[in-house]
Amino acid sequence: MRLEILPVLGIGHVTEGDDLAAVIATAAPWLRDGDVLVVTSKIVSKAEGRLVDVPADGPERLAARDEVLAGETVRVVASRGPTRIVQTQHGFVMASAGIDASNVDKTQLVLLPVDPDASARALRDALRERYDLDVAVIISDTMGRPWRNGLTDVALGVAGMPAIRDHRGEVDPYGNELQLTQMAVVDELAGAGELIKGKCDQVPVAVVRGYFSATNPDDAGGARALVRDAAQDLFSLGTAEARAAGLADAATLADGRGPTPVDLTAVRRAIDAVAGVVTPGTVFTLVDEAEVRAGLVAEMPGWPDGAALVLGSAPTPVEPIGLVRFGADLHRLRVALAAEGVGSTLLPPPPGSPASAALAL
Amino acid sequence: MRLEILPVLGIGHVTEGDDLAAVIATAAPWLRDGDVLVVTSKIVSKAEGRLVDVPADGPERLAARDEVLAGETVRVVASRGPTRIVQTQHGFVMASAGIDASNVDKTQLVLLPVDPDASARALRDALRERYDLDVAVIISDTMGRPWRNGLTDVALGVAGMPAIRDHRGEVDPYGNELQLTQMAVVDELAGAGELIKGKCDQVPVAVVRGYFSATNPDDAGGARALVRDAAQDLFSLGTAEARAAGLADAATLADGRGPTPVDLTAVRRAIDAVAGVVTPGTVFTLVDEAEVRAGLVAEMPGWPDGAALVLGSAPTPVEPIGLVRFGADLHRLRVALAAEGVGSTLLPPPPGSPASAALAL
Q1: pLDDT attached to residue A277
Q2: Is Phosphoprotein a UniProt keyword of this protein (chains A, B) (predicted)?
Q3: Nearest C-alpha of chain A: how many angstroms from B182?
Q4: Residue B101 is assigned to a structural domain of this protein
Q5: Which CATH number characterizes residue A164's domain?
């Protein structure tokens, strides 16, 4: 058992309208059933005419590029300086939406194929129908990733095999069910193809031979299956962007209660968290004795049933600007409570109490 | 030109103290100079005794596992439910610090090698010195990644070649300098190795042949070169964690000015951002006419030179709880300003002004 990775040499410049199946079959008459073709997305884009004209240089080029990027962007995930990590309409998260200015005329930019799975399927179908070749096709591109320097090639589209090899249910020799079950083999195949493409000049197609003897027409949703839903992703936003979103959350914090019963330890942590930044003399007190709380809240109209109570007192003597500062301190506490997952509502103090305000938690 | 990926068959269970060079050289007498060995980190860990005993099941197992994880964790990057994405002492960001319970007895956990680059170097040196083989060695492990489903194998350690192939300075046929310059080829090699390991049962070593004719003793810092510094990383924290950090920032917001001159458009955006959540009747006014501002701030002791001025007025008639609510609104605005990168300081209103408070920006 062995795999071979072979370069397809002799593919020249690809231009709009080129018949990629013919180009590849001509350059690689040695293709066999079961081969995996790893095709650089750029030649697919070029053949499909996914090029836009831009000025060759100057600020006009930058402006045009920004406009093209905006058109390819569904969502900005992170940015710093000129770097833009965005989610494309395919769902891929990539720098600059995969727009590329290399291996193309200076007055053009190359966009990703509109539907790389469809491109892969079309190429696979054409090779089967016209050249009697049953191959799998991967459309690959180069991406960076968080946490690790360096780029790798991964799959944007696939046909003739599923993107993921699932080991679920397999058991190791020790009787443990396998933990790491879903391997993104098309990404590993794309990377394997890059190893030989990167060694040669201008080799946009590599072939992995021996990975299987027969392709699988059920591609299980193609490379789209690799796109993790943003809601499921622990890194759906850049750190700076998420941190700014946290600030925005704090600015627009709504009244309301979180999960009940309230975690009183979390409330104490929140009070501690702001203790060093509130105006000296501001005091927050968690009223944790049930009887005392019941006595105080009995007088408060509309008190939420069973809510925990924090009393806040402004420094004395109480002056107007002191109450303003105290109100700011109280919002600090509400935000710190929110960071602990504790919701709160600002209420007037219990009648007759020396406190300046109350929080219902 | 071609690459071959070959499995090393016949490697049995590896246990502490095993001589990996002997194990591999015996199982693969066909190794050649220039081969790249892709060695699953687990057999390196086992040979190096990186195993810990844990109860086979029950809550004791979970508790023991948590303790082991804490010991392998330098920094928690993200967590959700039972998932912990952490940074290890090597700098790698991985689920559960790479601790693995598969392919090992139920009463043991496998930790990552202490220094995978050193492990790779030791294996390479042993094969050269004792078997006259000049090979590169990659220690690989399986990792997930943000945004894309499925796992891939990547490199934890390398010897005999640099982790990154740098195309910097190369020019494409169109005269463009290459944009994507640094390829993490050891990760692609690790993934290529997984393709054949995953096809066979219990194959912990793969060989990539043909990648180069001679190894490079300068490994340029090994796989550590792949670790991106957290400060440089746009995704150094999980989204939920960063968002909570943003809330904490808001709770502990300090007085102070940001970059000057202040972006007045950003100030207006911040005022708009809180307009829907402040108490009805609360009014924030950016005093943007220089003469008016100069007249107002002339009376304010310690006014920061050249600072922008926002006046805030509580709803009338002004009552104590109204001033508290207004203070909370003012902190909302300060936080919204911070989200725009604008620093602020809460000050008493100018003498004689009907405003309740002022912000110096």
Answers
A1: 96
A2: no
A3: 5
A4: no
A5: 3.30.1330.100
